[in-house]
Inverse folding.
């Protein structure tokens, strides 16, 4: 880790696993040729075989076929390709209306906003207080010209997992293409495209101890998708550019290293943080659904204090966490997710996200709570909003 | 070099803020900002009535590191100064005393300076130091309410239609606020309104009622 730092921001980025690096190394130093066709030269054919193997493994992870998975540069590109690609492909044939949610991550949210500026209409569904989207609300939002529904599998900040099987069924019944951003669930929360009627799925290596800058998009066979970056004919003519074979091999290796045992352990650390924080620190609340949430995510609001002050104090004590406070963000805007689930600014400002990964141990969960209890008490002691001061 | 966007002086004040806490029976006090803008500062003064020197000053902060650090430094700068001198302390001086603040965080730190100025004005009003005695009108009250923040969205209570009604009769003010009485911020809003209006020389009573659902 970073010397003494206890890293609890695995939802943002994860440490690369050495075994992943080893899986990538040959494609930098030995088989560094581009992936050629079967009529190319032999090292190029070997490279292509490695790419195909990684593709097949990742497609299988989602229950899809090898020719239904394309590599991208990460979640952002995958979701841009899905949302804009379908919208452009169906603009004339189906129409210019999209349905998504208010709490999507920025690649989907800002792709939708960009399309709005080009004359598309977008319905942004409001989730309930736990962050869940009602499949019936999706049904009610569909219009004759709806080209795409994009609802995330799980939320980036509060971890709430959506019932995408039910949402997908609504879309399938209406004949509408359905995309889901699974960046925060891939390999940790089961998703089988054989059972879930989803047409496009965004995944990424950076959240599963794989390399950064490598992602993927599952594209169900027959899904209308317009290629939007011009260039060569790579990735079934859906994504131009020289393939990152080391990245693809690293992504597949990272996915293969995830085990149920590890995910259970991560979930146990998450539960320890949630249970101790709510039980031991007054004026706290959990953000997101208590059980329908990703195994790695705990998100708690500590009322009457501001998140940037918490994260800075924790940083000085050797912990890395993130917050939905406006002060923490580059945009100086409070979390659109906390506001989207009906929270106010104060709840967003005091929210702290803890996300666990492979390199955390149970002691980290206990130490972060011990420390945050002290930090929050200190900050509340100087907060003009804190009502419990007299007793303290 | 610290890896933080703040320098060592700022971090030191953030970790160990000076003159922090509530003050019992302050001679002057003010609150600036709101939870919605992410920053809030309360400033309390004890003033020597003879020479108008600030003998004690305390602050409270709900905010980020630069808000807390500026609150801390502003109390150090103001302590021992006369009200006239304290009024003239600028954000630039506070920022310089801290060795500089990130530009992005300027708005968070300005609040502390405004808090000090408002606390001085509060003292002056409560102690009859404001010489021109213009009778308070509904317009005056309206202007004051524009400095009370609606914690729900970061704008003032007037602009966000939280003020359901406002009456003034024989120095008695009644304000109706469209929030439920048990709302999380009801007490804060009530206190803020009273703080902003009570010091007016001809106001005898301020009643705040919550009429929201």
């Amino acid at each position: 880790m970073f010397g003494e730092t206890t890293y609890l921001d695995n939802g943002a980025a994860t440490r690369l696993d050495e075994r992943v690096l080893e899986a990538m190394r040959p494609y930098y130093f030995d088989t560094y040729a581009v992936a050629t066709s079967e009529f190319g030269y032999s090292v190029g054919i070997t490279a292509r075989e490695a790419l195909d193997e990684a593709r097949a493994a990742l497609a299988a992870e989602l229950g899809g076929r090898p020719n239904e998975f394309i590599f991208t540069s990460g979640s952002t590109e995958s979701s841009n390709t899905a949302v804009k690609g379908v919208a452009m492909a169906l603009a004339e044939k189906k129409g210019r209306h999209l349905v998504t949610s208010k709490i999507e991550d920025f690649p989907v949210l800002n792709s939708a906003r960009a399309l709005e500026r080009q004359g598309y209409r977008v319905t942004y569904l409001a989730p309930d207080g736990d962050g869940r989207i009602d499949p019936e609300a999706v049904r009610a939002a569909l219009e004759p010209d709806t080209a795409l529904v994009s609802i995330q599998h799980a939320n980036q900040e509060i971890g709430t997992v959506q019932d995408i099987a039910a949402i997908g069924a609504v879309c399938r019944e209406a004949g509408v293409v359905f995309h889901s951003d699974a960046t925060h669930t891939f390999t940790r929360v089961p998703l089988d495209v054989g059972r879930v009627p989803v047409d496009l799925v965004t995944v990424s290596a950076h959240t599963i101890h794989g390399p950064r800058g490598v992602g993927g998009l599952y594209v169900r066979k027959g899904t209308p998708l317009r290629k939007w970056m011009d260039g060569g004919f790579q990735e079934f003519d859906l994504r131009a550019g020289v393939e990152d074979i080391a990245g693809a091999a690293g992504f597949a290796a990272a996915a293969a290293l995830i085990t149920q045992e590890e995910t259970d352990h991560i979930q146990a650390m998450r539960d320890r943080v949630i249970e101790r924080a709510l039980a031991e620190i007054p004026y706290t609340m959990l953000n997101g659904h208590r059980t329908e949430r990703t195994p790695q995510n705990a998100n708690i609001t500590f009322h009457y204090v501001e998140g940037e002050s918490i994260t800075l104090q924790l940083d000085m004590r050797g912990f890395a966490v993130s917050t939905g406070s406006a002060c923490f963000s580059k945009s100086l805007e409070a979390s659109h997710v906390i506001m989207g689930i009906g929270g106010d600014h104060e709840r967003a400002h005091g929210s702290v996200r803890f996300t666990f990964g492979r390199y955390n141990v149970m002691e980290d969960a206990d130490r972060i709570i011990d420390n945050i209890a002290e930090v929050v008490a200190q900050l509340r002691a100087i907060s003009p909003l804190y009502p419990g001061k007299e007793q303290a | 070099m610290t890896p933080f966007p703040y320098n060592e002086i700022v971090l030191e004040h953030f970790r160990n803020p000076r003159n922090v806490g509530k003050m019992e029976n302050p001679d002057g006090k003010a609150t600036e900002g709101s939870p919605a803008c992410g920053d809030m500062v309360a400033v309390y003064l004890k003033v020597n009535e003879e020479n108008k020197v600030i003998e004690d000053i305390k602050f409270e902060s709900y905010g980020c590191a630069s808000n807390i650090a500026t609150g801390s430094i502003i109390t150090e700068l103001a302590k021992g100064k006369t009200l006239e001198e304290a009024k003239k302390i600028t954000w630039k001086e506070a920022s310089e005393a801290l060795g500089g603040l990130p530009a992005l965080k300027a708005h968070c730190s300005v609040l502390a300076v405004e808090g000090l100025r408002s606390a001085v004005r509060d003292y002056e009003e409560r102690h009859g130091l404001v010489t021109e005695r213009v009778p308070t009108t509904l317009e005056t009250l309206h202007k004051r309410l524009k400095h009370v923040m609606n914690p729900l969205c970061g704008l003032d209570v007037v602009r966000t239609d939280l003020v359901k009604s406002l009456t003034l009769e024989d120095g008695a003010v009644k304000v109706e606020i469209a929030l439920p009485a048990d709302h999380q911020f009801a007490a804060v809003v009530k206190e803020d309104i009273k703080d902003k209006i009570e010091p007016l020389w001809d106001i005898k009573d301020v009643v705040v009622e919550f009429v929201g659902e």
